[in-house]
């Protein structure tokens, strides 16, 4: 993950995009941001750090779509960062019919409603 590799290297500035990005079938690019160990740090901060690293290193150049798989059971401002900072044009929520998935989708929806107008979604 970006955060685990950054911890090993010393900081996120010591990483290269090739260290964290895997390229697969039909040039699909995949990155895992990671998060802190339980009880230590902020997972939302990891999202912000990862997105900023990817932007600064050109990960979003020449792509058609960006998809984020986020935790919905954690109500954290960091997870709303892509919406608040106008990094999202459209948002789609995909979930199963399980109660925790519905709970997570509801939390994400609340964040979207809060920041959609200011973020241009």
UniProtKB/TrEMBL annotation:
**Cited PROSITE patterns:** NIFH_FRXC_1 (PS00746), NIFH_FRXC_2 (PS00692), NIFH_FRXC_3 (PS51026)
Q: Tell me where the signal peptide lies.
A: none
The superkingdom listed in its UniProt entry is Bacteria
Is Repeat there in the keyword field?
A: no
According to UniProt, the reaction catalysed is: N2 + 8 reduced [2Fe-2S]-[ferredoxin] + 16 ATP + 16 H2O = H2 + 8 oxidized [2Fe-2S]-[ferredoxin] + 2 NH4(+) + 16 ADP + 16 phosphate + 6 H(+)
The record's EC number reads 1.18.6.1
Query: What is an example of a Pfam family matching this protein?
Result: Fer4_NifH
Cofactor(s) essential for the protein: [4Fe-4S] cluster
Q: Sorted alphabetically, which keywords does the UniProt record give? A: 4Fe-4S, ATP-binding, Iron, Iron-sulfur, Metal-binding, Nucleotide-binding, Oxidoreductase
Q: Give this protein's Gene Ontology molecular function annotations.
A: 4 iron, 4 sulfur cluster binding; ATP binding; metal ion binding; nitrogenase activity
Gene3D superfamilies named in the record:
P-loop containing nucleotide triphosphate hydrolases
- Role according to the record: The key enzymatic reactions in nitrogen fixation are catalyzed by the nitrogenase complex, which has 2 components: the iron protein and the molybdenum-iron protein.
Q: How does it assemble?
A: Homodimer.
State the family named in the UniProt similarity comment for this chain. Answer: Belongs to the NifH/BchL/ChlL family.
* Protein name per UniProt: nitrogenase
Q: Name the gene.
A: nifH
């Amino acid at each position: 993950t970006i955060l685990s590799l950054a911890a090993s290297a010393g900081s996120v500035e010591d990483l290269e995009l090739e260290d964290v990005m895997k390229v697969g079938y039909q040039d699909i690019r995949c990155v895992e941001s990671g998060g802190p160990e339980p009880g230590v740090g902020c997972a939302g901060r990891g999202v912000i750090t990862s997105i900023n690293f990817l932007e600064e290193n050109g990960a979003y150049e020449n792509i058609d779509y960006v998809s984020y798989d986020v935790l919905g059971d954690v109500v954290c401002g960091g997870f709303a960062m892509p919406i608040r900072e106008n990094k999202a044009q459209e948002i789609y929520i995909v979930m199963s019919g399980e109660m925790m998935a519905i709970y997570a989708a509801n939390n994400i929806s609340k964040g979207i409603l809060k920041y959609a107008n200011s973020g241009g979604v």
